Amino acid sequence: MKQKIALCFFGAIILLNAGAETFAYKHRAGDKYRIISTVVEDVYINTKISHRAEIVNRIAVDVLSVNNGEGVHRAVFLTAEKALGAGAGKGFQWSRDYESVFTRSPQGRLTIDSKYYMPVVRNVPVFPAKDLKPGETWTAEGHEMHDFRDSFGIQEPYRIPFTANYTFLGNREWKGKQYPAFSVSYRIFAEVPAVRGRVWPRRILGASDQTVFWDPVLGQAAAYKEDFRMIFSLSDGRTIEYRGEARAEILEAPAMDKGKIAVEVLDEIKRLDIPDTEVRVTAEGVAISLENIQFQPDSAILLPGEKRKLDKIAEILLKYPDRDILVGGHTALAGTGEARAKLSAERAAAVADYLLGKNVRGADRVIVRGYGAEQPLADNSSEAGRRRNRRVEVTILEN
Question: Could you tell me the residue range of the domain that residue 333 belongs to?
């Protein structure tokens, strides 16, 4: 539920003036931001715990243009989730990709089409056009926009308004460094009209308490942390509650030279003599395609020979520790679409878990996705083509 991304990351700057702080957004055309947001939440149904989940949001933002201080942004959000607890896999399963375009004013007001699902939290922060001293407070209207297509069957972005209360805290510590910081708090209590869906909220209760840490040298937020709680009383009589913590940081990774890395990876594949393996530059990064990877029939259990191949892939991945990884499963065109999607996701998860066991990355930096037969490399009418299409791709990600 909570793909929480506070927009305070996108290009704000702090101006110092005679002991006071003036907060204002300063956008520069061509700026690019990479942000990672992590949410850990407990989900309760009718006051009983249903499950615990961790959600990772990777956000890539480009400032397309600036006019009279207002910046036009294009943002791509990649969300992934994993269950926590006994029996859960190690990697994060891809959830959804989102894209949005919006304009931000110097004081933080957002102009965005209502068709966009992301970002969830909007018009936070909004700054007053005056100097602020530690302890000073202000308020501004904001709202959350939620994607309830899967959970409730509501097909349009669902808007929940609130009034945010701000306090300038002065300097606060984050990971051993001091940053100017402010708090953001809001409460929600709403009796809401019915909307079209399988079920819909009748009453919404919510609370959010954030602390935002600003980096005046970078001219943008360094990080934020949040405690939240949202309770939905639904039309079918159930009550669903989401309770948890969120935090986000800017990713400090240099621009990726995909062509150079692709050549390096291909040289390593040749040196290590890894068969049936290709390298491609993709929109996401550099993909290592393990073609015709072998599992037990109709299962996600790797054959022993494939594990030896993955040991060599792990050796390559360790050369690029600053890059996150996407493990994508692909099938040939056989069986039903639902079965192909399920099997490809399970096989990708098996490869991801094996690589995580080799400590190539932490679990929060590996995403798993099943593509089924949606992205063939060759014609499925021949056995040679089907062999190419039955593959797992390990992509070294741009962000």
Answer: 258-397
